[in-house]
Prior knowledge:
- By secondary structure, this protein is mostly helical.
- The chain is 66% helix and 0% strand.
- It contains 1 helix and no strands.
- It has one helix at 12-36.
Amino acid sequence: xxxxxxxxxxxxxxxxxxxxxxxxxxIAGFYLFTKVFS
Length: 38
């Protein structure tokens, strides 16, 4: 089995961290959006 290279970022764990941070930012953004306009 050959090691597959991830696109853009050099390591797969960086993708996992990026996705988790991105989802956390989206959740925080929607939470603040609903607090401001409620």
